[in-house]
Structures are given as structure tokens and as C-alpha cells.
């Protein structure tokens, strides 16, 4: 395929061009419309009473005083909502023997994590609802909390529906691992801990649920990246016909995967709106976000690499225990991350013997689930730290050992020992580009010079492979009603402009901008004449929306094919008007032109005018098709893998344990780039989330399962003064599965930034007897590794 | 709550008389009572900077003040700064550099940038990063924001030099 080749020089050639986002101006002027801002007539406000214990039996709930407070309109407990809401269970069929207890909006018998919502208060204002929440008396008999995942593996089941605390376990074994380790000249082994962290979107979760009993119609204004998924969930779990459920996702204040999961609060608020027949608003405050948004990561991994005397990897063996909280999340589950961890291990490297063991374990904490770069940072860090450990063991330069082991760019297509099919990757080109752009040799000279003065600088390299453009192999095959296809409607307006409504969604990454670029490019019109609408299940076709780096690759291809279809229709009409063959005509700069000469024949606006208002002048039997609907589902490879290389330069203060991040470099290959400006900013934002995990971010729990740093004053997020400038370069290897050739880029930065940072810190500490294998690498952990404290 | 208090203040140049509960924060007053939703709340404890507004031309956290404390003051929000075209150049630089993604931190970023640009201090990348130490952005990684403020500072300086010449 790939007949498409964008030429940047022709008129309206927007694919590949850095253009700014039309919809960003609104946000810059304070004219954004977030769910948080929304006010509806007769709207009420929700607040929750939450469990103070990580595990306990509900003995009694006294809501009388709360109900009596002036301004309180209703108080709901578990039974009220369970009676109208079908329970949900977060499992996928293709994860054999996966299990999770059923969930209901508010608990009926037990609380399973500290912060779990127990009682819902509905009042005239949020302030009154919070006042009332303080008047509710919940008597809970505290039970021992399972906070440690390894303990949880053998402890008695905490859910009565399950026999043990294992959500999912699986093994991969390509064979030959034991033999390879027996025959190895060198073997390295490390044990890693990846802390829990969380998305901390600046806009917290928010919903306004508006049920109209007269029509049995639910409208949910929901800050989510996946409105169609929620339309399906609300419809099925509350028994409302799908066509009567409308989910509107307006401006969203960040999501990063966090806002695509089903949360108890949102389900409860929808139920309350159904029970009361009034709009109800719930906006999580930041403290609530910390105890109820999904967390991410929380992995304990032991990994081993076997190498021959030339430093070639011969085998890899890993064991991953990941703790996911009390329930597997719905509908995407909490096992996808672990599954991706064990399947992405060693991905850039050319070896065939691989073995992995995965245990996904329940514990009494809030759920973990998919957050930006699902599984990638873990697989990347384990692989890349082991490669660096091997390099140190063999006295090889980090670039040298990678050059020896990379899958050659000339050897694709390839299937990894874990079963992933790689269409075409560009590790060798990326690694070489990285080395030259960072001026590696000079940095090493500088490092050696500074080391003599007692200044410890470290350079870390990490290669990554990223999963993008997922087919139904991701969720659909597991029974989840999550679409891998997207749909677009393109409408010509009577003035010759184009309106596009499409199922991929916008959270600020620039989805609407790139879709507009593609449509304008393919139609040959000015992009200011294309209006793109997203995020409303009533006005856009059903589709997958935005997750797992699918917006550009799948949504973009949908838009491209739709635009070509509309163009063919428009040229057919123009041909009738001009008495010319459509094949001899083209659209350029809003004009119908002769393809060969470029001579302008008739404006698109005039074609539209005739077609809409003077159809009587067209030949009999003509029915001009001025709108098109088009759906596109990915075919060919199950995923479009991308790749890249990152490097981090740090300076470690061995006395204080503080690390200054001096610079970060990224070379990445996301296939066809639609808008370099937006791709670069996706990569930068992604890197900073990875650096946050590497140095700052961790949800700290005590042994009782209490989160001890659940506020923005205590939980550290990367701030401007701690972050480096990030230099980016691109290699473009388009996928041949689509005309557009685009793959994803949103998770690339996060995928390898922590790994590069770990390798950088460990490089700085070479000779000091310290190796960090736990993130975040806090000053305390660095000083402990150094033996200072 | 009972016992509402009358306040009078200037918001974006307009005089507002309002009855507010003493516990209403300035952020909630702006967002809910007078529907200036350009100001956001991200932490409600003065950490994230999403709620920054100008109080008598100085950036303050609207979430850390009660509305009653703003009685008699002049408050300016992103809507007001936009309306009087005080940050046209800054907004243009943010737009062209794509120094925002979801936009939720942006009003606070612009208020911080307005403050640091108005200070007249010589700005380099490090001092801009320092000036943003109270503004949290999850999307951009900050570099584009630093770039946009740096560009605005440079253009303003060039403009002033031109005026003087």
C-alpha cells in the first residue's frame, strides 16, 4: 500500500507540516468548556463518604442526620444503587483463567481499600454535600489489610467470590532458556521495584449525569477520552437503550489513560441521576483523586540476561509480580500492563530464548490500570538496565553492546520470542542518530574530566519498542466492547467548506488539528475551511476514540479514506457541471482544476451551490452525494510497532543524593509524521512523565494500606525548574498497512525515559558500589545505595 | 451556610456587588458565582497554580483566599487580561509554540508569565523555569512554555528598544 506520498510543496499539503492548533486559542483565552465548568438547570451536586480503612466489614451506616441537613436532597448507600445497576467484572476472555470480583457502585458488605466511596450525598451545592458527608456515621469493623503484593499471593482470599488473591497468572517460554544460561559466558541478574504512581491530570475526574425519565434518556457530560465505551457501559449496566444514552466529552483537562476506566463514583452519580431525574455533578477534589483515580505500575521484577563472550544476548528470563488493588478495572482490566511488560521485554534485541512468569495480584489498595505507556516503562527499564549491567560486566560501551545486539534494520518482518510481529523497525538508524545528536564521544570526555574534579555525571541510553494502532487483538478478542475501528462523517457545506465529525477524541494532543490537516490535504482545500468535531456520541460515529496511540494511525486513516471518498463524489458532480471526465479533474486550493494543467475551472463553493440549490441544472437521475460516512478498522499487522532511542544526562550529588537532570535526547520513529510540532510536544510531555516516575512520583502506603502522601503538596510531580530541555529527532518508517503510514507517538517518551534516567544515575555512580534498581530514585534511595545512610 | 456577607470588588474592570458565604474561596466565587470559568482549580491548596489570578496586579492563588478577603480589591482573570489585550503577544507565542495541550493549567501559566514579564527582570531560561515553579503542567513537559515566555520577553525587549531609539 502506501501509495500516498505527501509532497510538502503543493497547495494545501498539510500532512507533514507543523501547524498550530485552531482549538487552542479558545483555551488560551479562558474560553475552554470543561465538564468542571458545566452548570445545568436544576443541577445537584455529589459528595462521597469514603472508607477510612483499607479493608473492613460494613457493620452499619447511619445517614439520618445527613439526610436532615438543609439543602440535602438525597443520600444513597450500596443497596440503593445495586438495585438498579448490573454489576461489572474486569476480566478479558483471552487472558486465560483471569478473575476478579464483581463490582457495584457503592459497597454492600465490605470495603476493599482506603478511600473507597461508601455513601453518596446529593445536595444543592458541593459545600452542603460535604457538610452532610461529615454527619454520616459509617461503622466499619476493620480487617487486616493486604498491602504487600508478595504477602497477598499466599494470603487467604480477601474477596468471598474468589479462592485466592491471584487475578491472573501466565507464563511465556520459547524454550532453550535453561540451556542458554548454562552455556552463557556472562549472566547478569537484577531485581527491580517500580513504585505506584498516578496520572495527576490537572483537571480531576468530572461528570454531570443528566437523566430525563420522560424519554428514558441519559446524557452524561463526562471528562473521558472514550465516550463510546461509556455510552455502552451506561446503557448495559443501567438498562437504557444505547441510542438513548449520549456521552459528551467536551474539553478535557488531561487524561493519559486515567479517564478511560469505569469508576465507582461516576457509576454512582449516573445511578443517582436516574433515581432523582435531575442532573448531578461530581468533580473529584485532589485528595479524592489520589485515593480513587487508577494508579499505575507497582511491579516487582527479577530479570536475567545470558550473554556469550562477544556480548551477544542469548537468553532472557523474567519474573514480574504486579499488584493491582482490590479489583481488576473495567472494562479494560488491570492485567494488560503485566501482559505487556512480559511481552515487550528485550524487544529491540536479536535473541530467541525467552521465558517469563507473570503474577497479577489483588491487594487492599485502589485499582491500578492503564496509564500512559502501559507496561512499556517496566519492560524497557528491566531490559535496558540489564543490558547496561552486562556492558559494565564485559567492559563494553553502552552503545557498543546495543549495536551488537539490535535486530538489524534489514531483517524485517520479524516475530519476537514473545509473539509480537514487527513489520519494520529502525533501531540501528535511531541508535546511530542518537549518538551523533548528543555528541556522545565529547560527553564522555567531559564526564571523565569532571569526574576528576569529583563531579559525578552519568549518561544513560535506552531503546524502546512501542505498541500503537491496536487491532481487535487488544480488547475485542477478549470480549470487551471496545472498538478498534473508527468512523468519520464528512459533510460539504453549501459554501464549499467541510465539516468532519470523527470518533477519535481530543485531550489537547492535537487530534482535531491533525484530522483537519489530513482532510484538507486530501481534499485540496484550505484547512481553515475544515471544521472538526469530536467527543459526542450523538453527533459522531461510534469508534475506539483515543487510547494506546491510535488517534493518528487509525483515526487519521479513517479521515484520509473518508476525504478521498468525498473528493471522488465532488469531482463527479464537478465533471457533470463542467462536462468533463472526473478523472481529468482535481481539487487544489478550493478550486476544481484540470489535473494536468492545473487550470482553475470552477470553485468548490460554486460546485456546492449548484449541487445544493440548483440540482435542477444537473443531468436527470443525478443524485449528488455531498456527505460521506466512512469507517476504517486496522487490518494487516495486529499492532503497528514503533521504536526509538533515548538518552539522559544527569549529575548526581553523592553527598545529598540529589540528581540534576541536565539534558534528555529522543530519537523516535512513529512512521509518517502528520504534524512535527505536535509530535515533538507529545514526546516531550511523555518524557517528563517518565522522568517523574524515575525521580519523584510515588504513591506511598503504610503497612495498613493507607496512602500517606495523597495530596499535591506531598506527592511530587515534575515541575518546570527540575525538568531539562529535551532534544528530539525523527526517523520515519511508515507502516505499509495504511495509506497514511502513521503510527502512534504519545507513549514513546514515557516508554524509555525512566530507563534512560536509571542508566544515567547508575553510570554516574560507577565505581561507588551503588546500583539503583528501584524507582523513583529519591535522594534517600541514592544515599542508601551509596551506603551513606 | 448562613450569614452571607456583602462584598464589593472590581473584577476585570467591572464593579461587582455580591453576597457571599464567608467560606467561599475567591476561586469558587469567580468560577461559580460570576461564571468566570477560565480560572481553574487543580489542588485547592495553593500548589498547582491553575487558579492564579491578579489581585491588585499581583499573581495570587484564588484557592487560598476567601472571596470576602478580596472586598475592595481589583481582581483580574485570564478573561480580563484577554479582553484588555494585555497578553496578546504572550497568547500568540503560546499558540504558535504549542505551549499548551489540555489547557487546564494555561490561565495560571499566563498569569505567572504576566507577572514575571511585568517585573522587568532580565529573563533567561533558568529564571523563567524558576518563575514557573508554582505552576504544574502535566501535558507539555514545560519546555514549550519556557520557549513561549522567552520569545515574548525577547520581542517585548526589542519593541522597547525600538521605541527608545
If you had to describe this structure to a student in words, what would you say it looks like?
The complex is a heterodimer of chains A (789) and B (165). In chain A, 28% of the residues lie in helices and 24% in strands. Chain A has 20 helices and 29 strands. The radius of gyration of chain A is 28 Å and the shape is globular. Chain B has two domains: 5-82, Ubiquitin-like (UB roll); 87-164, [2Fe-2S]-binding domain (DNA polymerase, domain 1). Chain B is 40% helix and 15% strand. Chain B contains six helices and five strands, in the order E-E-H-E-E-E-H-H-H-H-H. Chain B has helices spanning 26-33, 78-83, 88-97, 106-118, 125-131, 143-164; strands at residues 5-11, 14-20, 52-55, 58-61, 74-76. In chain B, a hairpin with a 2-residue loop joins strand 1 and strand 2 (14-20). Chain B is globular. Chain B starts with a strand and ends with a helix. Classes of the chains: A alpha+beta (789), B alpha+beta (165). The interface between A and B is large, with 56 and 56 residues.
Report a brief summary of the structure.
Chain A has 789 residues and is of the alpha+beta class. Chain A is 28% helix and 24% strand.
